[in-house]
Amino acid sequence: MSIWGNIFAATYDRIMSGVEKNVVGPHRKELLARTHGRVLEIGGGTGANLPYWPDAVTEVVASEPEEPMARRYEAKLSEYSRNVKVVRAPAEALPFGDDEFDFVVSTLVLCTVSDPAKALSEVRRVLKPQGELIFLEHVRSDEPKLAKWQNRLNGLQRRVGHGCNCNRDTVANIEHAGFTVDGLGHDTLRPAPPIVRPLVFGSAHPNT
Question: What pLDDT, in 10s, does the model give residues 134-158?
Fold first, then answer.
């Protein structure tokens, strides 16, 4: 693990505190309230979703490939009376069988995975046929001028954000992976820099 990876994990919660309080936290609470049964959380990070799992969720399995992030996630587990397990695995290679989960949750993850198509293919594979993908992601802007700046600055964003891309069309990626997106919402990640502000949230079901 790189030195920057350890620093990024150690400072992540503090860096994100403003947008969590103002924007992301309320969306997490609303989106996760609908989950139940067995849930897979890809890219669990430092455990920002932990306060929001409802009682209807019987188990949460969090996949997290970054060891410093996974350790910080596990350090928080004693604060919550939830059945949560952290697994060291990337979204592109999930160590689970087909049709195992009622929900898959992705919150601020698909910007960073190395291969979005492969990650979403894995999500579709492990999700039950009647299951649901819940997502909350910052994305490429629909406004052409901002989108151009996102393209220009994406290399810098990747370095500063430890692999985070600011210019991915995540909704299109979800649809191309064989999902139907419904209930799509939009918001703005303030006070984050403009290139990472466009936010989408909603759910998607596997096409039959």
Answer: 999 999 999 999 999 999 999 999 9
Spell out the alpha helix ranges (H) of the chain. Answer: 3-19, 25-32, 67-76, 116-126, 144-160, 170-176
Total-model pTM: 0.94
Q: Which whole-number Å values give the CA distances from 193 to 4, 18, 152, in the listed order?
A: 20, 12, 14
Give the torsion sign (CA, 191, 196, 35, 62): negative
Domain holding 45: CATH number? 3.40.50.150
Q: Which domain holds residue 15?
A: 3-206
Split into its structural domains, the chain has a count of: 1
pLDDT digits (tens, 9 = 90+) for 29-65: 999 999 999 999 999 999 999 999 999 999 999 999 9
